[in-house]
Amino acid sequence: MMRRFSPLPASALAASACFRRPAPTSPARVAPDSPAADTMTDFNRVAAVTIEPGASIDDANRKMIEHGIRLLLVVESSDIVLGIITASDILGEKPMQIVQERGLRHSEITVRDIMTPREMLEVIQMRDVLNARVGHVVTTLQRARRQHAMVVEPNEGDACQAVRGLFSASQIARQLGVPVHVGDVVRTFTEIEALLNH
User: Fold this and answer.
1) 15 within a domain of the structure (yes/no)
2) Whole-number mean pLDDT of the chain?
3) What CA–CA distances, in Å, run from 6 to 3, 9, 142?
4) Any idea what the CATH number is for the domain that residue 77 is in?
5) In Å, what is the CA distance from 54 to each residue of 38, 39, 71, 111?
6) What residues make up the domain containing 67?
7) Most confident listed range (42-46, 49-53, 156-160, 194-198)
8) Residue 109 to residue 98: CA distance in whole angstroms
9) Would you give the end-to-end CA distance of the chain in angstroms?
10) d(CA 165, CA 44)
């Protein structure tokens, strides 16, 4: 026989009611020899922010600002990853080149026009991340001269490759407490360790 439960007391919502927001948290400080996973944005814990390829780049920029991020996964309706778009893509030279080459207005440029397609993306396996250190990730980003690295793992139950998370040079820099350059100015780990020790 099912146990009987009494209802909880209820009252009217106050006119001045507000709602709770999670307290902003700073990512934990790390060192070059800390586990790499400590700096990864893990999509098992944080929802990936996505956009469709037909969206305007203005919409993509607004979405990045709204979520406080600099990269969106570009997906089709079935959640298949088609590529990525970054703040650098939107705010860099690509849109102006398209305006000049195709005679489009800036507001007509879509995510598809400037995204980095799947075929041009390199990924890191989650199994390698689990055995890596922050230093390995920084060196990987520097070698590739990229701000971000995508982490993948096999999807349970099928042959699909699932995007598990992302590494971001800017997030790693915040957690290390020193700049991490991945463009033209490359810091070696000896330089980063010297900065950390001062």
Assistant:
1) no
2) 88
3) 10, 9, 61
4) 3.10.580.10
5) 34, 31, 16, 6
6) 36-197
7) 49-53
8) 8
9) 69
10) 8
